Amino acid sequence: MPPAADRRPTTRTHHGDTFTDEYEWLRAKEDPEVVSYLEAENSWTMSRLEHLAPLRQSIFDEIKARTQETDLSLPSRDGGWWYYSRTEEGKQYPIHARYEVGDPDDWTPRVLEPGEPVPGEQVLLDQNVEADGHDFFSLGTFDVSDDGGLLLYAVDTSGDERYTLRIRDLSTGTDLDDEVPGTAPGAFFAPDGIHVFYQTVDEAWRPHRLWRHRIGTSRDDDVMVFDEPDERYWMGAGVSRSKKYLVIELASKVTSECWILEADDPTGEFRCVRPRSEGVEYSVEHAVLPETFLPADGSAGGRDVLLILHNENAENFELTVADVPGPEGTAGWGDVAVPHDPDVRLEGISASQRYLVLYYRRGAIGRSGILRLDTPDGVVRRPGASPDRRAAPTLPASEIKPQLMESARPPEVGPVGTSWRFEEMTFGQELESVGAGVGVWEQPNLLVGYTSFVTPSAVYDYDVATGERTLLKQTPVLGGFDPNEYAQRREWAVAEDGTRVPISLVWRKDRVTLGDDGVPVTPAPVLLYGYGAYEMSLDPYFSIPRLSLLERGVVFAIAHVRGGGEMGRHWYDGGKLGHKRNTFTDFVACARHLAAVGWTTPERTVADGGSAGGLLVGAALNLAPDAFGGVLAGVPFVDALTSMLDPSLPLTVTEWDEWGDPLHDAEVYAYMKSYSPYENIPDDASHYPQVLATTSFNDTRVMYVEPAKWIARLRAAGAPALLKIEMQAGHGGVSGRYATWEQIAFEHAWILQVLGLADVSTPPV
Question: Where does the Peptidase S9 prolyl oligopeptidase catalytic domain start and stop, copy by copy (predicted)?
Fold first, then answer.
């Protein structure tokens, strides 16, 4: 018999409503009885799925056989070194290394051959050595000083995301006495190589303080340089790509604020770029604009500016150019470079010495636009274009979007002297992810990353002047993989309120036969994935483990529901706070659409989501249990109301801008209670499909107790529900690539069982 958690009723009362919770006692993490119960859940799950062991092994072997186990990343140059990481067959973790630059004018990374010794290699950090003796290992900081002599790194060996910071002397390979426990990830060297900046977290796991440490001194002498008391705000900090400024970024879910300091004065005082204003978000990027971008008023060339993306009166953000603030700060955004467009969501800007890259989203696809700073007017030309700015041809209209790529004429006194036009990077596929990467400040070329659902990730060297792309490295897929054997496409479901919701599909052509109407002749098994929160977009990506499903005839689908960012800021706003139910009804609409048009049937559909996506599939399960044959929920946020009522828990206060504040607002309380998966399980859930929840004992983002309580209540109501808990892991699951493959194989075998394919131990030839 499955373990049955004792029913120990506790009550909570808010806004006149009393809820009886029979399983809240499972929150006592240190209680041996709780640990014993969780271990019993694991034993029960493994006993129920013991028959899938051969299938799990087959899937693990397939992933392993398709993966180039001994491999190297593409080197990236910084200063006088080429940096890279490599993996070795049989080892769980990567090895970080470097070799010296030969020709100082050589900026094209050399593709290194897997398994061959790298001449002059210096190993900086072998994660396998650092992880020895630990069941879990995560690297949270990796930064090399500008002179190349020191390595700053931080490790977590429990999964609770509290990192111990260390400094290694790379000339000797030994660590200095400097060590700081309990830090957040993302520490960094100041450019002087003498000072280190790191962050610490409060009791709610919120990075809130920035500290300055002088190398070789006691931690007791460290200086707290910034403290953010508002519990809604998280802190981030770093060095600008130009290495001219140190930057602090403070952000809630709806408001942000940036502070800067000259990097050559690391002991100085940070100053605010623009004081926070509720509901206004902005980010800054330092750039140096050449003379041709400045007004014809005698201003000197090479002017320091801040590129600012903000959303004040611009829902989808606009890009402006402003002077770097002095001690008094700045009062305005500067001049508009790329204006607001209701159809284009501006997401980021990167600058180097020679070009800018703008990241934006249009038509549910992320895109990159490139602007050169070393041409007379910033216009990107085709090969052989005239250098005469008056006669310089621009890109044809078919390759640019004028509303985005050409700005309004700026004020006469503004720093932007011409309209800006960007070249949009594309590889011509309907569903693709293309990102132009800006390396270090001096780098003259661009690296362009490209992938799709059917194309393994590739990196190209891109010559902006000529438009020439050279493939440098593509993720190898062993075993005769042919992308032409797979297909991808976009479908559109119609939500309850008439909104069209995009769905991405990928399948193997010879496993799923399509009719003349473009849908399978026989309904196919479908794995439907969703997330729908925090404005995160689920862009096309290639996955080697996914091939084990596609080879067995499974169609993989992503429901791009509201709450994500695929269709712009309004798409996010339409699935948060008082509109959160749209996320769940959109997902159900996608599942019903795929069944209605013939792609699948409800019993051959498995819903999949993790973290906030676990909330999504848990809520969808209660709304429409008949729409799915199974639900896989990873580290699921299924007891959302309980968590949002307790401000002492990690993340709660910072999350109120995303979900609402049920502690102080009765309407929010009632709304969240109407959809929170745990509270809405019916007394009789025997008609529910199969459910598998996975979680981690040391997860600080979504505590193990949420899925543990959810599964206990589902099972008590008669639902066929299983729980698998990793006792040494964090929010991202287990660490190490082989352990990760085992976890994936476990989940995929369960999916195949639900879809009626578990008897297929190996994919058909």
Answer: 542-756
pLDDT digits (tens, 9 = 90+) for 624-653: 999 999 999 999 999 999 999 999 888 899
Please state, in angstroms and rounded to a whole number, the distance separating the CA atoms of residues 61 and 43. 24
C-alpha to C-alpha distance for 19 and 695, rounded to whole angstroms: 25
Residues 6+ apart with CB under 8 A from 321: 289, 305, 306, 307, 308, 334, 335, 337, 414, 415, 416
The CA distances from residue 762 to 235, 745, 765, in Å, are 48, 13, 9
| Tally of CA atoms within 13 A in the half-sphere of 546 that contains its CB | 22
Q: Which CATH architecture has domain 134-279?
A: 7 Propeller (2.130)
Residues marked as catalytic: 611, 699, 731
pLDDT tens digit string along 325-370?
887 766 678 888 888 889 999 999 999 988 889 999 988 999 988 8
pTM for the model: 0.90
Residue range 394-404: average pLDDT?
Answer: 29
AA identity, residue 367:
R
Spatial distance between the Cα atoms of 34 and 37, rounded to a whole number of angstroms = 5
The CATH H-level (homologous superfamily) assignment of domain 490-733 is: Alpha/Beta hydrolase fold, catalytic domain (3.40.50.1820)
Delimit the CATH 3.40.50.1820 region(s) of the chain.
Answer: 490-733
Residue 318: C-alpha distances to residues 256, 352, 355, 540 (Å): 15, 20, 19, 25
Region 228-244 average pLDDT: 95
Q: Which of 353, 385, 358, 382 is nearest to 370 (CA)?
A: 358
Helix (H) or strand (E) holding 35: helix 32-48
Q: What's the distance, CA 220 to chain centroid? A: 35
C-alpha distances in Å from residue 495, one per residue of 353, 584, 674:
46, 10, 19
